[in-house]
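Continuing the batch. This is chain 6 of the set; chains 1 through 5 are on the previous pages. Same settings as before, nothing changed between runs. Recording input and output for traceability.
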Amino acid sequence: MSSATTQNVPRFTPEQYLAIERNAEFKSEFDDGIIEAMSGATREHNLITGNVSREIGIQFKGRPCETYTGDMRVWVGPARQYRYPDVVALCGEPRFLDGTLDTLLNPSLIVEVLSESTERKDRGGKFAAYRRLESLREYVMIDPRRVLVERYTRDGDRWVLTLFENIEGTLQLESVGCEIPLKEIYAKVIFPPEEADD
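Output for chain 6:
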């Protein structure tokens, strides 16, 4: 977005955004004063989100842990952002912004399913903001176009990347004590055909 365009965008306080968002028909995110409309998701995106949330939820049975899908807003206070991650999970007591219980403050795990329109932001600005959350221990990005899961884990001040590219592999989620076979993550997903080499 050019500086001229940015100057013409109306700016809001976090409180104004929240008042608007709680009465809105469609979801929007908030990035330091700017309200950003969210687009719809593809079949693959929805399948993967549901698969991951289901597998985590099954393993949370009988444990003091909770998982939420894309309708749970997260307040990323240090970056002045409100985000709707695809999947959020934590073990222990969830903390919310207020009594409405629709804005989580302390996620341990955030999962984003990539898309052409969001990948750059998921890898860049969103991850940079999420890293500032003291509670966050793992950040996972899942590619719906091929078998590729990227898991970042917090190690002190560093974030360590582990790649999962084998459909026979298993994603370990240490922050919430879960394991998900990649076969389950990608269940029913149809990958686009590979382009032939020239």
